[in-house]
Specification:
- The protein is of the alpha+beta class and about 375 residues long.
- About 70% of the residues lie in helices and about 10% in strands.
- The strands form two sheets. A five-stranded mixed sheet has the order 2-4-5-7-6. Strands 1-3 form a two-stranded antiparallel ribbon.
- α4 packs across α5 and α6 packs antiparallel against α7.
- The protein is built from eleven helices and seven strands.
Length: about 375
């Protein structure tokens, strides 16, 4: 408590103890051995002024507050140290200065240690030269000074450690905030990619179905046009369910990837496309995150096939192992694209790659033996 009083942050309790110290110094100086010559009186009063300045120093860490504290301690060091042998109050002042100076945190660090050393030198000069103390008395004084200096140094190290801990906690808070922000951005990106795929797949299919229905109506094939309209309704309902699933961001322990791939193939056929599905029995179940990423990638690949190679049959193959699944979506190249060829934003393949990379997988897309192929490799969990 005493160490904290002299070296800690300036609080109400600290000021109270400093006030008690000032009163003790004044009372201890009343019975001074000699107030003469005049320089002794001047230095004793100077030490009192230093105590008063230290007592009333501002509590903040501004330059003005630090300057006031340093000036006050300098006055205490000079006034108290130089008259330590003439007055008990000055001895208290000098010892308090050694303790406070070695515990100072203000920069530069040499100021506190230098001030403590100056105080010790003045104390020994006063005791040895002015008062003529015996070496044994000086040894006791030296022991007391060393003890107080070590206490001040220990207090300084404690305060440094506390400040470092505070900075570490603040840095951890900033890191957590950045990590949460990055996670939120990643989740937004994932949702944006999912919504892109849902809209591209559903709206693209609707455009094709409605174009076909319009052409059939102009040709007078009302029943066939009605079938196209019904297929459009089914596709819209499926797209709405997918959109709700994305926005809700539902998560489950596992999902049947085989069932999801067959559903996507059925939707492709419902929009007038032809797809051949070859799914290995080992494909099985995968985590919800993997199932969603893979299904969105397959959906994007089928949408691209419908856009850029309309009427061309698509082959969807899937193979699984204990640790990963591999899918290949390929179609013959078409010399002319459909009406939706230029409707996209060009973000489909990029979003597909980002989505699969986020779960630790890879995507390769390009020409293979006269066909366009998309290869997807993803971990099962």
């Amino acid at each position: 408590m005493i160490v904290a009083t002299f070296t800690g942050a300036t609080t109400g309790l600290t000021r109270l103890f400093r006030l008690v110290g000032l009163i003790a110094v004044v009372l201890g100086s009343v019975d001074a051995v000699s107030w003469h010559p005049l320089w002794v009186s001047v230095l004793i009063v100077l030490s009192w002024i230093g105590w008063a300045g230290w007592l009333t120093a501002p509590a903040d860490a501004s330059n003005g507050a630090l300057s006031c504290e340093r000036i006050s301690l300098c006055a205490m060091a000079i006034g108290g140290g130089a008259t330590a042998a003439q007055s008990n109050g000055s001895m208290i002042t000098a010892l308090a200065t050694v303790l406070a100076a070695t515990a100072l945190l203000s920069k530069p660090a040499w100021f506190g240690y230098g001030l403590a050393a100056l105080t010790v030198v003045l104390m020994f000069v006063s005791s040895l030269v002015v008062a003529g103390e015996r070496p044994r008395s000086l040894l006791g004084l030296l022991t007391g000074v060393v003890v107080l200096a070590l206490m001040g140094w220990a207090r300084r190290q404690t305060r440094i450690a506390a400040e470092q801990n505070r900075l570490l906690v603040e840095q951890n808070r900033v890191i957590r905030a950045e990590r949460d922000r990055a996670a939120a951005m990643a989740e937004r990106g994932r949702i944006a990619r999912d919504i892109h795929d849902v809209l591209a797949h559903t709206l693209g299919g609707l455009v094709m179905q409605l174009d076909a229905a319009d052409a059939l109506l102009e040709a007078g094939a009302v029943e066939q046009a009605a079938e196209r309209v019904k297929a459009s309704h089914t596709l819209a309902v499926s797209g709405l369910a997918d959109a709700r699933r994305v926005v809700g961001a539902l998560r489950a322990e596992g999902s049947d990837l085989t069932t999801e791939l067959r559903r996507l193939a059925g939707e492709h056929r419902a929009t007038g496309g032809e797809v051949q599905v070859e799914i290995d029995a080992a494909t099985g179940r995968a985590s919800e995150q993997v199932e969603m990423a893979v299904s969105r990638a397959v959906q994007e690949a089928l949408t691209n096939a419908r856009k850029h190679a309309p009427g061309q049959p698509v082959t969807l193959t899937a193979q699984g192992s204990a640790t990963e699944v591999e899918l290949v979506i390929s179609n013959a190249l078409s010399a002319h694209g459909g009406s939706l060829r230029h409707s996209g934003s060009g973000a489909g393949l990029l979003g597909m790659s980002e989505r699969i990379a986020a779960i630790g997988g890879t995507v390769q897309a390009g020409r293979e033996e006269g066909r366009w192929a998309v290869r997807i490799r993803a971990p099962r969990r």
